[in-house]
Amino acid sequence: MEPMGRTDITAVLTIAGLALTLTACTSDGPTAEDAAASLAEGLTNGDLSGVAFTSVSPEEATAQLEELAAPLDPVSPTVTVASVESTGEDTATAQLNHAWDVDAGDTDWTYTTTAELTKVDDAWQVGWTPGVAVNGLTEDATLAVSRTASERAEILGAGGEVLVTERPVIRVGIDKTRVEAAELEASATALADLVGIDPAAYVEQVAGAGGEAFVEAIVLRDNEDRPVSDDQINAIPGATGIPDTMSLAPTRTFARELLGSVGQVTAELVEQSDGRLEAGDTAGLSGIQLQYDEQLAGTPGMVIEAVTGEGETRTREVLFEKDPVPGEPLELTLDPALQTLAEEVLAEEESASSIVAIRPSSGAILAAANGPGSEGLQTALLGQYPPGSTFKVATSLALLKNGFTPDSTTSCPEELVVDGRAFNNVPGYPVQFTGEIPLLQALAQSCNTGFISQRDVVSQEALASAAADLGIGVDVPIGTPAFFGSVPAEADGTTHAASMIGQGEVLVSPLSLAIMAASVGAGERVAPTLLGGGGENAAPSSSASAEPTAEGTEGAGNETQEAPAPSNLTAEEAAALREMMAAVVTVGGAQLLADIPGEPVLAKTGTAEFGTEDPPRTHAWVVALQGDLAVAVFVEEGERGSISGGPLMEEFLRGAAGE
Q1: Which of 25, 383, 470, 588 could disulfide-link 584, Cβ–Cβ 3.0 to 4.6 Å?
Q2: Which of 450-464, 489-503, 533-547, 580-594 has the lowest mean pLDDT?
Q3: What pLDDT digit, counting tens, does each position of 379-431 carry?
Q4: In the CATH hierarchy, which top-level class contains the domain 155-308+316-322?
């Protein structure tokens, strides 16, 4: 055992002396230290029923404690005994250390209070005052807690370009102090009609608010595109617009499903925040804004004051003050110009639709756009649909791994029957490309039977493996929920035959097909990224749900994913796929993409049947590669990929090329 130093010996002697001093004025019953410990425990738990007091009952002390601490609810202090010193034969003084974890930051509100202890009939009692609970708090003072909002950080795009920042808005509503009670219903109805909200619900909201309330109807961007003018608002008795700012993207639709929105917190968010949020706070309500709210929001400032008196005689003493800490910006890989272009291309599409663009060299997601027909759903990242003939790129890879080359022949009859089910090519399929044709032409012309006829060459397991080599079905943490596709490893008969052409149980999202195209372009499986800096802080993605829905909302949580198996895609195989995808543009179904400026475009179109109608409804797909740009276009209710998706892809690529 190591020898004691001088400091250790002094500490031991001090403690021993304190113990002797206290023992000298006590009997064998509870000590002053016991009373101090009970007091500290009661202050920590908010229950002083186990403490004896000199002038109040434990119940009265507990009620006073509850009242004075109410402004800090649900936060409670941790109180410990710092020291107990004898001040007389039957008196002692306890020093108590208090620590309040008042917010999510590292700084606590700490202070020390003094409690006077008196021995009465062999029992130690505490002299109760509010100052025992809060240092310096007098009998006639109350605590007041106010929070100062922190500055919400911006969301940035590629190259640090600002996507979301504080932009001017106008809060439109009824100021009940500026309108007669008899006119309230008419004014509320008129304003609701003006701004396009439910009049009955707004009238009820206005009627239920306090007599001096401002009842907000809507928040509008305060720019030249504002649909309601100041004159229109002011023409309604009691209606007014209050200037403000909000954290907004450049336009109302810009990446809305991905970025999400900011607004007043819901009761559910407050409950889930573990004290971080309070009613009336502004926070992220959906999308990236919700997912990264703590980073973006920062930490609000706080002032705790002792308030004495009322009205003009009111005085305030600051007991604790902490400055707000601004949020930290979040950088995404989105390219603002390409995202805007993609949304403009989809603006007139009535059904659900999306465009996803990826840079093959880095995996950066440059655009993840949804058309208005998606009605706010995240089609681009979470949609789950059969890919149709675009999946023949993966099937071609499986054939290449089984010894095929682009020149190897495959049988392409007009019809092929598998276990009683007839598979045909699309109406109008060129008859000159039936019979024995090269694999290159089978992909270029999109011969269904040409791929299904090789179902005995490529097992379902091999097909799933080839798809995974191109990123389909491989989950990657991109920082937000996403669906990367699902290809069953086991299937036989007609299900396996259908899988060869992207039907059956094969499901993808527009994101996963863009990854497939990017992997072909890069010559290796591409791991997509959405967060700037390579996505080091990315949250896990979602995996395929057991029962997929139209938009993949089931199973879209952030489950922990195992590391994917390495890709076996070789440079030679990728080169062969690029050669065949080039033929789709030069001699196949995507010839409308042949004269787009810039590097040659490589592509694959696809049509996927769904539903029970006869003829069946169809999804339209197109994937394309041009230089260091991979793009997937999807239309939920389309004709053929070349007909419905092709023009959208052409418009997007021409726009990206600067036309």
Answers
A1: 588
A2: 533-547
A3: 999 999 999 999 999 999 999 999 999 999 999 999 999 999 999 998 889 99
A4: alpha beta
Look up tokens 């395929």; give the residue.
Answer: 544
CA-to-CA distance for 43 and 30, rounded, in angstroms?
19
3-state secondary structure 428-485: CCCHHHCEEEEHHHHHHCCCHHHHHCCCCCCCHHHHHHHHHHCCCCCCCCCCCCCCCC
DSSP 602: E
CB-based contact 542:482 (threshold 8 Å)? yes
Fold of 14-138: Nuclear Transport Factor 2; Chain: A, (3.10.450)
pLDDT at 187 over 50: yes
In 3D space, the residue among 382, 388, 383, 370 whose CA is nearest the CA of residue 619 turns out to be: 388
Domain ranges of the chain: 14-138, 155-308+316-322, 373-597
Burial classification of residue 613, based on how many CB atoms lie within 10 Å of its CB (0-12 exposed, 13-18 middle, 19 or more buried): exposed
| CA within 13 Å, CB half, 460 | 18
Q: What are the distances in angstroms from CA 397 to CA 126, 483, 519?
A: 82, 22, 12
Evaluate if residue 611 carries a pLDDT over 80.
no
Cα(404)–Cα(142) distance, integer angstroms: 83
Calpha distance 368→380 (Å, rounded): 6
pLDDT of residue 228: 95
State which fold the 373-597 domain adopts. Answer: Beta-lactamase (3.40.710)
Cα torsion 221, 227, 232, 236 to 10°: value is: -70
Task: Tell me the pLDDT tens digit for each residue of 300-356.
Answer: 899 999 999 887 778 889 999 999 999 999 999 999 999 999 999 999 999 999 999
